[in-house]
Amino acid sequence: MTDAHLELRGLHKEYPGGLTAVEGLSLSLSRGELLVLVGPSGCGKSTTLRCIAGLEDPTDGDVRIDGESVTGRRPEDRAIAMVFQNYALYPHKTARENIGFGLRMTTDLSDATVRERVEDVAGTLGITDLLDKKPGSLSGGQQQRVALGRAIVRDPEVFLLDEPLSNLDATLRGRMRTEIQQLQRDLDVTTVYVTHDQTEAMTIGDRIAVLRDGRLQQMGSPMTCYHEPANRFVASFIGEPSMNLLDCELDPAGSALTGPVSYPLDDRLAAAAREAEGVGVTLGFRPEAPTLSVPTDEADPDTPTFAGRVDVVEPIGERSFVYVTLDAGPQVTVATPGGTPVRETEPVRVAVAPAGVHLFDAATGQALVHPDRDERSDLAGVPAREPDHG
Ligand code: ADP
């Protein structure tokens, strides 16, 4: 890995009144890397960005760019540009004035140079013919491009994007996502991208950092977070539909789980389950892992199987999501190839091979074991592992 370009060291932010929004967050990005900060609303993503930008002072910790602390520097002295969720454009200025405003205020570039740079950036973003319009007469996507232009034109060291697509409709969101990715690659600028949307995080990030209650849960490539979630929270947050998680107990002989379901453990799972702090473990499997069958089909005697009844079948094209309430109680989600033979309200069997099972420690939430790599790549149809940057 190259030396860190942007680095957070033990970033801590407590708001007046005692609320800790960010707790001891350390992470580093190499030059040109795009890191996505992802987590549910209120987990401290915006606060982190605002501390990096200098719009908020951290209570403790350090923000460093190129090995140098910028904590305490004014926002305009940090070579950082931020794009806000609501774009924050000046309504009475044209797109051209909006894009050029920061340059005029913070540099002594000539009018001709500012004009040239604004037009260059507008060309890159495909908004040259909108330059003389005001934000009110632009669509959401066009306003988004103007906001991006205003950030890019400053040629920042670091680019911060706070939920940049959340005000756009679904189609445009998909398109802008690709555009931002391409732009970020072309500009090769170190970028922190904030979103609460795990799909967006998975598709856009070189690496993702999953936050919960101000604390870092896991940082890694999207595929690592998906296949090897560090804990229960990441397991349930990354992946759509969510991983099925069933709280069980390890039976005294250590060879099976009991609780809402009973599940015989093979050697690999039994060894991992014994690492749990107590007897509680959580059995996890992705919706893609099980095989669904109807009771009249011949069952594979070697694969542990749960009986249940279909609640809902959701066809989404090449796959269907089948929601099954197990006889033992909990509901699980199963993804099946397109034309599934199962029908709502009818009994089914859900066969879950041990090779597709994750276990988590119920006491700490920490992962105990994940499916083997080879099995996993067969299951998900994707490479078992992508290289991590750090
Ligand atoms: P996210 O961007 O992940 O939704 P935020 O960083 O906005 O989360 O907020 C993290 C926590 O800090 C939340 O509990 C939020 O209510 C609180 N918070 C954010 N800004 C302030 C503020 N200016 N004063 C007090 N509490 C705040």
Walk me through what this model shows.
- The strands form 4 sheets. This protein has a 6-stranded mixed beta sheet with strand order 6-7-8-3-9-10, with helices on both faces.
- By secondary structure, the chain is of the alpha+beta class.
- It is elongated and about 80 Å long.
- The protein has 10 helices and 21 strands.
- Helices cover 26% and strands 32% of the residues.
- Strand 20 and strand 21 (367-369) form a beta hairpin.
- The longest helix is centred in the middle third of the chain and has 18 residues, at 170-187.
- Helix 2 crosses helix 3, helix 2 packs parallel to helix 4 (140-152) and helix 3 (111-125) packs across helix 4 (140-152).
- Adenosine-5'-diphosphate is lined by residues 15, 19, 21, 39, 41-47.
- Count of individual beta strands: 21
* Cofactors, ions, other ligands: adenosine-5'-diphosphate
Question: Helicity range of the residues?
Answer: 25-40%
Number of helices: 10
The whole-number mean of residue pLDDT values reads 90
Rg, Å, rounded: 25 Å
User: Structural class, from secondary structure content?
Assistant: alpha+beta
- pLDDT below 50 for ≥5 consecutive residues: which ranges? 376-390
Largest beta-sheet characterization:
6 strands, mixed
Distance between the termini: 6 Å
Oligomerization category of the chains in this entry: single chain
Strand line-up in the sheet with most strands: 6-7-8-3-9-10
| General form | elongated
Estimated share of beta-strand residues: 25-35%
